[in-house]
Every structure is written in structure tokens, then in C-alpha cells.
Design a protein that fits this description.
With 359 residues, the protein is mainly alpha-helical. α7 crosses α9 and α9 packs antiparallel against α10. It holds the Pfam family DUF6571. InterPro entries: DUF6571 (IPR046701).
Length: 359
């Protein structure tokens, strides 16, 4: 893998990458005018629910839930028929920005809004894959579509795990897009560095949220931690596999540095294992005394209790201090973390290499 430096940030217990465009949101395009003139939508605005609502109302002006599915109304069908025949290189960036903004509404507590946003997300993926040739994908369009795909983390995890969106109704996009459409969209955007960073950021955040949510109430915290980190590594391996599929397995042109990613993921797993009380006393003692007789920089004591912290940001370089700590001990949990992350990455990478891609 090439040695491209990727910075990682640990904030509010969520591991994220530093990147140009905020995760889950479309990229800002400066002062350029809006070719479609979508009412109430400004593609220069990020983190705005009103902006996302305006995009959703434009892309799904009418429809209703029927038998558990959102069914587009006549105006919505006409809108998409018009879009299919009216886009050009000057309008794709605004249109995909609106698609990305609308996709953020998938998590709405309002059932109809969430269902409409899910339908728009699926229709947007279909549009990007079936209507737009790869030669028309601009860097900004790729970043917008990466944000849209990042709003479907359950689907990414499913495909990374070798499951299909077509064989079950477990996922919001099941029955709305094919595996080939979803994976082709990933394939077409992941050669852009900012788009790749967006996807990695969102998926690491998703997995760490799962860890924070499930471990405190888990009957077996160790098994739960190991399983969740293997799943996270599998997702990262999947994205890495698709990246190398795009570059014909030429790792020197990768937009994802798997070695750096796994190093940071492993370090974070050690931190979580310590914070959830899964490491031995000998391991914590090594953190206090193993750095030339003194403590590692990440070791401190809170109310007299050994505490393992993480710097902000944590980078692949700073992550190596945790790896050095690991070499001083024979901790069974750390050994299992190493094994499960390696296994997860290998499984995900194989699924990424086997992705169904329409070229």
C-alpha cells in the first residue's frame, strides 16, 4: 500500500477521518448558480434540515406508503422522467447535491418522510448508474454520491459481509436497488480521494456507534467487542477491495490506505477494550511502565484508576505507540483483537474484489 497519510479524529467516542467535505452532506460548490433552481435548496449550505427537506420535496413531491412501501405519485414519476431526459454536465453537480441532501432524511422519525427519502436514495443510485456514463462523473459529483451512499450504512455492511440486498427485506433499499447498482455506484466514486474519505469516515463512525450502543449492555462484552471490530474491519476491507478493483489491484494508486486504517482501527480497539475493563492488570501496568521505564503518553490515572486515553486526532503515526504497548504483553484480548481485525479485513476485501460492477 502506498504511504498516503490519512488523519483520524476521535471525538465524542467516534473515530472519523479529517476530510474536505463533511460526512453525509453534499459538497459546497461556491457561488455557482443552481441550474435546476430547486425551490428552497442551496447546494452551498450544509447541515441544514430545511435544505434537506427542500431537496426531498423536489425529488419526491407526492406519494404515499402502501403495504409497507413508499409509492411515488404522478408528480414524482413525472419529475424523474424529466430529470432522466434533461440532465447535462452543468446540472449533475446540483442534482446529486440535492440527492445527497435528501438521503439524510432516511433517519427521520416521521415514517413517511423516512420512506420517501429511502425511495429517493434508491432512485438516485439507479439514476447515477443507469443514466449517467462514468465519463460524466465529476469530482464533486463523486463526493456527493459518496455522501448519499454513506447514508445507507446498513446496506454497505451487508454487502461487505457477503449478503445481498436482493435476497431479503432486512434493509431499507432491499427490493429497490440491485447489488450491482449499489456496488457500481461505490466503484465509480471511490477513486476520488475525498469521496473515499467520506465513505471511510461514515462507516467508521457507524461501527463505533454500534460499539458504544451494544457493549454497555452486552452479556458478554468481550465477544461483543471482538465481533463488532471484526465487522468494522470487514467493512474497511470491502471498501479497500473495491478500491483496488477500480485500480486493477495497483495499490500505488489507492485512495484507501488499508495498512494505516487497520493500524488505527486496532489501536482504537485496544482503547475500547481498556475502557470496558477487558484488559489484564499486567497489560495496564505495561502501559504505565513500558515506555523506557515510564508511562506511555496515552496512560493516565483518574481517581487512582489506570486509564487509557486516545489523542485527538489519532493518526497512523500516533497509533503505533499503542502497537508498541501491545508488543510488551501477551494479553489474550489483544491477541484476539489482532486476529479478528485481520480476519475481518480479509473477508471484506474478498467481497470487495468480487463486487458486481457494471462497467
Amino acid at each position: 500500500m502506498k504511504q498516503r497519510t490519512i488523519s483520524f479524529r476521535l471525538a465524542a467516542a467516534v473515530l472519523v477521518l479529517l476530510m474536505t467535505c463533511a460526512p453525509l452532506e453534499a459538497c459546497s460548490l461556491g457561488s455557482r448558480g443552481d441550474a435546476f433552481d430547486i425551490p428552497g435548496f442551496d447546494m452551498r449550505v450544509r447541515d441544514s434540515e430545511a435544505n434537506a427537506q427542500a431537496a426531498l420535496e423536489y425529488l419526491a413531491p407526492d406519494g404515499e406508503i402502501s403495504d409497507g412501501w413508499w409509492v411515488p405519485g404522478e408528480r414524482t414519476r413525472e419529475r424523474w422522467e424529466t430529470l432522466a431526459g434533461s440532465w447535462d454536465s452543468s446540472t449533475l453537480e446540483e442534482l446529486t447535491a440535492a440527492m445527497a441532501a435528501a438521503s439524510t432524511m432516511r433517519g427521520s422519525p416521521d415514517e413517511e418522510t423516512a420512506a420517501a427519502a429511502t425511495w429517493v436514495t434508491a432512485r438516485s443510485i439507479e439514476f447515477a448508474v443507469d443514466q449517467v456514463p462514468p465519463k460524466n462523473y465529476t469530482d464533486t459529483m463523486k463526493q456527493n454520491l459518496a455522501a448519499l451512499l454513506g447514508n445507507s450504512p446498513d446496506e454497505v455492511v451487508a454487502l461487505a459481509g457477503g449478503e445481498s440486498l436482493e435476497s431479503s427485506d432486512l434493509y431499507g433499499l432491499s427490493g429497490l436497488v440491485t447489488d450491482a447498482q449499489f456496488e457500481t455506484a461505490l466503484y465509480r466514486v471511490i477513486d476520488n480521494e475525498n469521496a473515499a474519505d467520506t465513505l471511510v469516515t461514515v462507516m467508521l463512525s457507524y461501527h463505533h456507534n454500534q460499539i458504544d450502543e451494544k457493549i454497555p449492555t452486552a452479556a458478554d462484552p468481550e465477544t461483543t467487542l471482538l465481533g463488532l471490530y471484526q465487522s468494522a474491519a470487514q467493512t474497511m476491507g470491502y471498501l479497500d477491495g473495491i478500491t483496488e478493483l477500480h485500480t486493477n489491484n495497483n495499490s500505488t494508486s489507492d485512495t484507501i490506505n488499508a495498512a494505516d486504517m487497520n493500524t488505527v482501527l486496532t489501536a482504537q480497539a485496544y482503547v475500547d477494550a481498556a475502557q470496558y475493563g477487558l484488559l489484564s492488570e499486567e497489560t495496564l501496568e505495561a502501559a504505565a511502565t513500558g515506555n523506557n521505564g515510564g508511562p506511555f503518553s496515552f496512560y493516565t490515572e483518574v481517581d487512582g484508576q489506570p486509564t487509557i486515553t486516545a489523542p485527538n486526532p489519532i493518526t497512523p503515526e500516533t497509533a503505533h505507540s499503542y502497537i508498541n504497548w501491545r508488543t510488551l504483553v501477551n494479553d489474550s484480548v489483544m491477541i484476539s483483537i489482532d486476529s479478528d481485525i485481520n480476519t475481518g479485513h480479509s473477508l471484506g476485501y474478498a467481497n470487495g474484489q468480487a463486487a458486481e460492477v457494471i462497467k
